[in-house]
Structures are given as C-alpha cells and as structure tokens.
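Researcher: Re-running this chain for the archive, since the previous output was lost when a drive failed. Same request as before.
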Amino acid sequence: MSQNIESEMIVHDNLFLLIVSSIFILSTAIQLFYYLFFYLAVPLYKNHISNTIKEPVSVIICARNEAENLRNFLPAVLKQDYPDYEVIVVNDCSEDATFEILGNLLRQYPNLKISTVTRDPKFAHNKKFAQFIGIKAAKNEILLFTDADCEPESEKWLEGMVSHFDDKTDFVLGYGGYIKKKGLLNKYIRYDTMTIAMQYLGMAIRGVPYMGVGRNLAYRRSLFFENKGFGTHKDVISGDDDLFVNLNANKRNTSVEFRKGTHTRSVPCSGIAKWISQKKRHMTSAPYYKFRDKLLLVTEPFSRILFYASFAVLISFMFFWPFVMAIFGFRLMIQIIVVALGQKRLQEPGLIGYLILFDIFSPVINGVVYLTSKRSRSGKNKWK
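Model: Regenerated structure tokens:
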C-alpha cells in the first residue's frame, strides 16, 4: 500500500516537474524572441536619411511652473543649427518666474514664440489642452515636441529628427533619456527608460509602432487635425504622445531616429515617491492601447516572471539541473550582449552590472505601480 502511494507521489512529482520544464522552455523561447527580434533591432539599425531638404519646423514645449528648467535648457533648443524653425512655448498657468524668464529669452531669440494659457476656475484642463494650443499656434507642417526639462544632446538634434520626413512619413520617434546622476534610483530610472526605448524603437523598426515619448517626438500638423487630435482620449491624464502614436502610427508612416546627436536628456526624479507618481501617470494610457500592442507588451514581462519562477523550481528539485543551467546561461548571455549593445547605442553607460537585479524586479515594480495607477485614472484634469 505504502509503495503504491509512494509510486503515485513520484509520478505526480515527475508530472509537475515536466510541466514546469515545459513552462521554462516556452518562456525562454519567448524571451529570446523579444531580445533577438525586437530589442536587437535597435543596435543593429542603420540610419536611412529620407530627406535632405531642411523643411521649416515648429518645436512645441508645454511648461507649467518650469522657470528654472526653461532658464537652463531652452537656450539649447533655441540655438539649433537649422535654417528655418520656430520654438513655441506654451506657458500654461504658471505661477513662478516663467513669464519673466520667457520675456528675457524673447528679447534674445527672434524664433521664440509664447502662447499663454491663463487660469480659469471654471475650466480645469490637462496637458493635452496646452499641447493643442501650441499646435494651433504652429505655422509649420512638421512639429517636433520636447519638454521644458529636456536638453538636446547637440545642435544637430532638430536636423536629425526632421531628416526622416518624406512623402510617406508622418511620425519620427526619437530617444529621450535621463541625465546620469549618482544613486541606485537614477540607475534604475535610466535602465527602465532604456529598455522601454529598446522596446518601442525595436517594435517600430519591425513594423509594429505602438508609442513614442513626448520628450523627443515629431509628427505632421495636418495628420493631427485630420485625425481629430486628442479627441478620442482627451480626458486621459497622459497620452499626449503615446496614445496619439498608438492610434495613428503604422509600419508605412513611421520612422525612428536615435543617433547620439539627436537624443534629448531630461532631469530625473530625485526621490522614489516622485518617480512612482510619474510612472503611475504614464501608465494611465496603457489600457487604451490597441489589443495587439497590449498583448505584446504584457507577454514579455509575464514570460520573464514565468522564466525565473520555473527556473527556481527546477533548480530547487535539481531536475535535469545541467540542462536547466545551460538554458539559463544561454538566455543570460544573449541578454547581456543585446543590452550591452543597446546601452552603447543609446549612450546609457554603467547599467549592465545591474542587469539581473533590475531584470528580476522590474516586472514586479511595474505591476504594482500599474495596479495602483488605476485609482489615478479618475483625475482626468491633472496636468502632470
């Protein structure tokens, strides 16, 4: 009797471990697909210049209480090496020294234009309204967006982003990183930003564009009005960049640009509470993505969780452990190579040493932030 019970337990254990092994192999295959098909596309991408004609451009920056950032970073936007462009700053209900800072810059730079939104207690609005005011004020067909706390990497930023526009191109997706500082939080913010960029840039290269970032994004003014602007998602807290791209970009009308001189760098959050708040706001747009994109975005982190969980179970039982370790090591080797190449291409040094730590915990962190962000979606009129 006891032998039969013991035999059944062995059969059950073996069946359980075979199922876990199947999950481990399947999740490994999914992970390798993402790294070799999507993420590797970024470091291997060869830039294709579509247009050598320097068309007029309107750069749009929305600012609310950003006086210090405008003082520090706006001159780099105003001094681009480009023959014909305007910079429109939308001063959205600022209560700091923004008006004075912009007034001083206005006397120095004739290509600077200012649109002012005054506070109205009867009309609360989010960033999309300020963005709309800037787009309405723009005189040029090509619009290039960045933030008040962003600085272009070079005077060739504008030229590089615009060079991709031709008769077929409506969107150019750029890279917006964060300034390197000391501390683990800064490393994680830069790692998170870099890996998200490798995802959205890589997917765009492979013909599946799903988002862009407002720190470095260009599109056509006519496209905005033809597609009713932010109309379908005007009350969502975020999405002035990614949702508009998600709804209107496709493999035929989208290009990417991430040469070093065309990056922008933003001021990173100095505390974890501020970063979580920022991350929550960004995630409020995710439920409105196309089903295809949501499926692709969920599959990678879910398969990663399954990969590490099944690996831990198999190793704890020492089940074919040399085989399991070989698969784990192969996936890690591919991951290190791809991330190292991406780190070099996007100019994000010093992150590879934290790869395993961040790789394990980022799905958990993002999952918790996403679930808690659901409670923020009712605050539709928040600016940022």
